[in-house]
């Protein structure tokens, strides 16, 4: 059998690439290397700006030409780094040499030794990952997440008054509204969104074991912690003063745990929407030309929500692993995080793909109000809760002597279908005040929704 041409192994880089392509700008190997170049260049510029070791500030044109190495990072730089790494067998060293080559081309060889000055590879890597992960979440994942929340919010408001039978434990239960149930998901997702947006992105820049040892030997009079903090914060990151060789990755663990939490809430949403479709509460709007089943022409399958479920599970599996493993490093450094962090894009990619499916799925469903009404009308027994609660209030108020109202209603309704006429006859025979009796006689399953509609306003 003839071998296939080179193919992407991951479906994120093949079948689903269009949905996640934005992440590649940040979380690919090229995206990481571009950030490494940025950090190396900015550190060099910082040192010259502060005239460290007798250097002089670069001109505006020189700084622009140096920064262009990161700003215009493309295929030539990717190819050159591959050539350099083939010799160095060290990815960060290859980046250092690439920056040195640019310095040489600009006639700046006299400051070449400030490239990667007093920095361990992890000083460059931790800042690069912080920059790329922060940008990926901010520019790709969060916009998709917010879009799903916005669509859910709109539907929660649209369906706020659409009464439906609740199903606790899968059984008919006290009615609610579709809007209120969707609002619950909006509220849950908004809390996690706020936590993700409010999270810090830490960076360290303190040398081989986090002690500034080489820095201090090079210049005993410099305030290296202050310099480190200023540099890290100049990149838009938060400074971590106490580390080993590596930044401890706790902020990453927090972020991935929160995104995994968001995934699980979305998974819950998908299973609920799937069930509502199965019950007929939502109708699916067929896509022109689409096929639901290869053999059953009538079917419109809820594939968007099923696909989302699977990708949310995959995402959480990767992100949970990252959160669990990245917080541990043997003594002052090991390399277990090196390969691990290269899978950040995989974890976020499956989540982003799921968000795309959820968004599209929500746009392809429409509520079936007749189905909701029919289901409510077939389950008058759910009013048993209301009746026994009113009886209890009447007993307490001295307007009834009925003993054990719960048992009375349990005998009438448990495991049985009870219609309107049966409940009307039962209520008319109760020993309760007339005002209470009138309230119960006016009650219907569709009207027994409490404050469900008003609760949507808490959004």
Task: Characterize the structure shown.
- GO terms for molecular function: lyase activity.
- This is Adenylosuccinate lyase.
- The protein has 20 helices and 6 strands.
- With 459 residues, it is mainly α.
- The protein has 3 domains: 21-117, Fumarase C, Chain B, domain 1 (Orthogonal Bundle), CATH 1.10.275; 122-286 and 299-369, Up-down Bundle (Fumarase C, Chain A, domain 2), CATH 1.20.200; 379-458, Fumarase/aspartase (C-terminal domain) (Ribonucleotide Reductase Protein R1, domain 1).
- The strands form 3 sheets. The protein has a two-stranded antiparallel sheet.
Keywords:
EC 4.3.2.2, Fumarate_lyase_fam, 459 residues, Ribonucleotide Reductase Protein R1, domain 1, lyase activity, Fumarase C, Chain A, domain 2, purine biosynthesis, Fumarase C, Chain B, domain 1, mainly alpha, 6 strands, PurB_bact, two-stranded antiparallel ribbon
Provide the fold topology.
Elements: H1 17-20, H2 24-27, H3 29-49, H4 60-71, H5 75-88, H6 91-105, H7 121-158, E1 163-168, E2 171-177, H8 178-197, E3 202-203, H9 213-218, H10 224-234, E4 238-239, H11 250-279, E5 282-284, H12 303-325, H13 336-341, H14 344-362, E6 365-367, H15 369-377, H16 384-396, H17 405-413, H18 420-428, H19 434-442, H20 452-455
Parallel strand pairs: 3-4
Antiparallel strand pairs: 1-2, 5-6
Helix pairs in contact: 3-4, 3-6, 3-7, 5-6, 7-8, 7-14, 8-11, 11-12, 11-14, 12-14, 16-17
Protein name: Adenylosuccinate lyase
Domain Fumarate lyase N-terminal: 27-308
Domain Adenylosuccinate lyase PurB C-terminal: 329-449
